[in-house]
């Protein structure tokens, strides 16, 4: 007995299988339970090895539909793989004059002369749009990571004709049970679903956050089967349309689509959020969130389900969200209205009362926390006080994205020194102005921290430790030898005489020319 195996490199390898015939006459009175278990294990090993060996005999074929079909019939491209599963596949080709109708998958198993084999198929259906002769052209389909080519064929589409039974539609299963199967009829189930974009505000101030989300909704009573179709690619295309150019985006970066139960209009829904972000507009005017399309795989179900073959047909349905418009208002008049942050903020400090020695350095944290565009928070304004020495702050920020809002903290850490004893209120030194959209007013955050400085004055010591710069930096570099001022006088006299002689010579030359 020979089995021919065709691999991807095109070479045929023949393997000879030796049939081993075992005759086992077992009598229950002569063997015990242990013997039965041993025989069962041996049979299982032989069967497993036989099946494993057969799975090597993989072959992929591409079958094209009939040469002639009616206008009311469908053409199909069928890819069949023997003794393996279809793990992945690429898009089937487009055919001029035809429209893709969806995909279906089928599988079968045969047991002939003690040998078991299986086939798995994927079928792409095409519906003709007009009569005429059309060419598929040569094409290739990627199955399980490998490309398989077909030369194509010519298809003649004629007038619509009465439906006929298609013999052998289910392949070997027809012979297994006797008779043939008609082409299954698929019906579309009415769905109760929609795709929508939502915003939490229809009017905001410049710099105020707007939450925007896109989600697919399906009622709990929905019976139509859906599946997401390339959500990453679709989302990339949508973001190019909905992202406003005059706003800062804080994306929630949804990595997996999770169901969420919601209730509105007295009905229970399952919400699948695909995108969420908060936009902070830079300027007044209007932000438009356009209507966008979202495509879902919607399966058609077989009208008469069967045990073998596919009982559902892959199809597509496109949903459209409604557009949104958000009005952006200017901030009220203020000298700093183009510089302040907008949001709901509070001040966080690392101490309220601190006692230090004169000349002793310490750190002070001016933290702005709350809801708003944390990235846009600028350092507080510092008023220069002679006895308080400050340095540029270190900055740390943390942004939280959740519950439909952007919140967090931006912390400015200062290193301070005081050289005079006394009480210093940091409210006299730091302040931070922002706009509160809820009250529609400007507000100021001022520290409550008080520093009590004790010890002797360190002002003179601080001055002596400071780098004076300028001429003082040259003291160590200049020569300490005295210069003779008489040489300087003679040099100046010589230069003056030389200049006078040059003038007289020039005057003489001019007189001679006349």
Automatic annotation (TrEMBL):
Domain of life: Bacteria
TM annotation in the entry: 489-511
Keyword annotations: Membrane, Transmembrane, Transmembrane helix
Protein name (database record): Oxygen tolerance
């Amino acid at each position: 007995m020979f089995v021919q195996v065709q691999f991807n490199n095109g070479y045929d390898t023949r393997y000879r299988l030796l049939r081993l015939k075992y005759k086992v006459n077992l009598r229950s009175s002569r063997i015990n339970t242990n013997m039965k278990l041993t025989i069962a294990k041996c049979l299982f090993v032989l069967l497993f090895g036989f099946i494993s060996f057969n799975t090597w005999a993989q072959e992929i074929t591409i079958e094209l539909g009939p040469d002639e079909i009616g206008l009311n019939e469908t053409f199909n491209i069928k890819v069949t793989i023997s003794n393996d599963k279809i793990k992945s596949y690429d898009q089937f080709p487009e055919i001029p004059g035809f429209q893709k109708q969806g995909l279906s998958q089928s599988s079968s198993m045969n047991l002939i002369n003690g040998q078991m084999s299986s086939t798995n198929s994927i079928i792409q259906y095409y519906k003709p749009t007009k009569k005429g002769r059309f060419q598929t052209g040569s094409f290739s389909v990627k199955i399980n990571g490998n490309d398989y080519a077909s030369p194509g064929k010519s298809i003649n589409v004629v007038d619509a004709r009465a439906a006929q039974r298609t013999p052998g539609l289910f392949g070997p299963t027809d012979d297994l049970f006797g008779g043939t199967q008609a082409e299954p009829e698929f019906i579309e189930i009415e769905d109760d679903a929609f795709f929508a974009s939502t915003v939490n505000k229809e009017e905001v101030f410049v710099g105020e956050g707007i939450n925007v989300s896109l989600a697919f909704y399906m009622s709990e009573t929905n019976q139509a089967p859906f599946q997401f179709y390339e959500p990453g690619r679709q989302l990339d295309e949508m973001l190019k349309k909905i992202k406003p150019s005059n706003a800062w985006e804080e994306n929630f970066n949804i990595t997996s689509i999770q169901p969420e139960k919601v209730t509105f209009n007295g009905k229970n829904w399952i919400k699948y959020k695909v995108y969420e972000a908060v936009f902070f507009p830079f300027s007044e005017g209007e932000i438009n969130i356009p209507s966008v399309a979202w495509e879902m795989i919607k399966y058609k179900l077989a009208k008469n389900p069967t045990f073998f073959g596919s009982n559902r047909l892959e199809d597509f349905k496109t949903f459209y969200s409604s557009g949104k418009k958000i009005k952006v208002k200017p901030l009220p008049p203020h000298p700093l209205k183009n510089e302040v942050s907008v949001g709901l903020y509070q001040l966080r400090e690392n101490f309220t009362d601190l006692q230090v020695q004169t000349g002793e350095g310490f750190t002070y944290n001016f933290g702005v926390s709350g809801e708003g565009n944390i990235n846009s928070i600028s350092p507080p304004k510092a008023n220069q006080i002679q006895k308080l020495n400050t340095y540029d702050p270190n900055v740390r920020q943390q942004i939280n994205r959740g519950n439909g809002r952007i919140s967090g903290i931006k912390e400015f850490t200062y290193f301070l020194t005081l050289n005079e004893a006394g009480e210093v209120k940091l409210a006299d030194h730091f302040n931070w102005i922002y706009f509160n959209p809820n009250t529609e007013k400007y507000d100021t955050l001022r520290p409550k921290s008080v520093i009590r400085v004790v010890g002797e004055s360190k002002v003179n010591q601080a001055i002596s430790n400071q780098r004076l710069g300028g001429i003082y930096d040259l003291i160590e570099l200049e020569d300490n030898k005295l210069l003779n001022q008489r040489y300087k006088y003679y040099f100046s006299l010589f230069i003056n005489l030389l200049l006078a002689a040059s003038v007289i010579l020039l005057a003489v030359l001019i007189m001679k020319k006349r």
